[in-house]
Amino acid sequence: MKVEDVDESIEVKVLKQDSYNSSINVTQYNFINSNDNIESCIDGEFKGWEGSTVFKLKNGQIWQQASYSYFYHYAYSPKVMISKTSGGYEMQVSDVDKRVEVKRIK
Q1: What is the DSSP code (8-state) at residue 15?
Q2: Which of 18, 34, 83, 89 could staple 8 via S-S, CB 3.0–4.6 A?
Q3: Could you give the CA distance from residue 28 to residue 53 in angstroms, rounded to a whole number?
Q4: Per the domain annotation, does 84 fall within a domain?
Q5: What is the secondary structure of 21-66 as a DSSP string?
């Protein structure tokens, strides 16, 4: 997908189309830009992480904690952004000021 006034292309994947309307809800997209950022939501309850926590996302991807740390925070279906780093990937959860290293398992 090419966006006006943006030099780089953005890959867009339609996850679900509203059957009552021919338009597509933007919140149902999985956007991946040239920086390899992935934006989605946790599928269900989020209770933080504790060593090897598995995170199932609404876009169908499954990620697992890649380095040991412990953090508790409860939220239901919070937004997440997964960003590529020099050593792998890290996940930022909405309203959480800590990041966790993750690896994609599906």
Answers
A1: -
A2: 34
A3: 25
A4: yes
A5: SSS--GGGEEEE-TT--EEEEBSSEE--EESS-EEEBTTS-EEEE-
- The 10s digit of each residue's pLDDT in 39-72 is 999 999 999 999 999 999 999 999 999 999 999 9
Task: Tell me the residue range of the domain where 55 lies.
Answer: 35-104
Number of independent structural domains in the chain: 1
Q: Are 73 and 58 spatial neighbours (Cβ–Cβ below 8 Å)?
A: no
Residue 8 confidence (pLDDT): 58
Q: Give the residue from 3, 11, 18, 105 showing the smallest Cα distance to 54.
A: 105
pTM: 0.67
